[in-house]
């Protein structure tokens, strides 16, 4: 049994070494070991299969400084490609490959997916508003912050909505980010701090 377990682990490491192309084999091995240490802390629903939302969110918060719960939930959704509400070891390593070391192209696609909350292929005004409302620091004396956020959404659309249809397609988002890289996380921090 131990021999077949080692063989399965080696096959997993070989497969992840190919699919998570931004990590070395040693790094993949470390990420698998980290995953294995986190799984027992996950909810019983995920059991020995994967990471639940709470443990995933805590890990992003503690290790990578992603502190916004709303955005952490959206990151969880993007990592959880099979939509089973658990992050498998493959989703973990492949997701971190893009999250930590992805190319600009990969990060554009990833950020777009985070902001496109309903998965319809567009970032709508409502999605922008929701993200900005939850990620902007609120001032205690601010009377109506919703109006200010609506103004920000309109500014973002003016700058990024190249086809003027009132929402951002992937093509709009990609062009805007390529023209100005700072727009990659325009609707909230969903990538780790450079540090």
From TrEMBL:
State the organism's lineage: Eukaryota, Metazoa, Chordata, Craniata, Vertebrata
Which positions fall inside the EF-hand domain? 67-102, 103-138, 148-183
- Natural source organism: Acanthisitta chloris (rifleman)
Q: Which InterPro entries would you find in this protein's record?
A: EF-hand-dom_pair (IPR011992), EF_Hand_1_Ca_BS (IPR018247), EF_hand_dom (IPR002048), Recoverin (IPR028846)
> Which keywords annotate this record?
Calcium, Metal-binding, Repeat
Tell me which SUPFAM superfamilies the record gives. Answer: EF-hand (SSF47473)
- GO-annotated molecular function: calcium ion binding
Q: What is this protein called?
A: EF-hand calcium-binding domain-containing protein 1
């Amino acid at each position: 049994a131990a021999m077949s377990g080692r063989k399965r682990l080696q096959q997993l490491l070989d497969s992840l070494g190919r699919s998570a192309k931004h990590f070395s084999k040693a790094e993949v091995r470390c990420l698998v070991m980290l995953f294995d240490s986190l799984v027992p802390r996950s909810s019983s629903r995920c059991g020995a299969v994967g990471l639940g939302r709470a443990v995933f969110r805590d890990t992003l918060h503690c290790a990578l400084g992603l502190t916004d719960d709303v955005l952490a939930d959206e990151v969880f959704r993007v990592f959880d490609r099979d939509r089973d509400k658990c992050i498998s070891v493959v989703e973990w390593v492949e997701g971190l490959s893009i999250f930590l070391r992805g190319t600009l192209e990969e990060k554009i696609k990833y950020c777009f997916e985070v902001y496109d909350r309903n998965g319809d292929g567009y970032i709508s005004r409502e999605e922008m508003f929701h993200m900005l409302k939850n990620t902007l620091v609120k001032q205690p004396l601010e009377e109506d912050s919703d109006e200010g956020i609506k103004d920000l959404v309109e500014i973002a659309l003016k700058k990024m909505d190249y086809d003027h249809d009132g929402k951002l397609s992937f093509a709009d988002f990609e062009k805007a980010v390529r023209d100005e890289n700072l727009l990659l996380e325009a609707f909230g921090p969903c990538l780790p701090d450079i540090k």
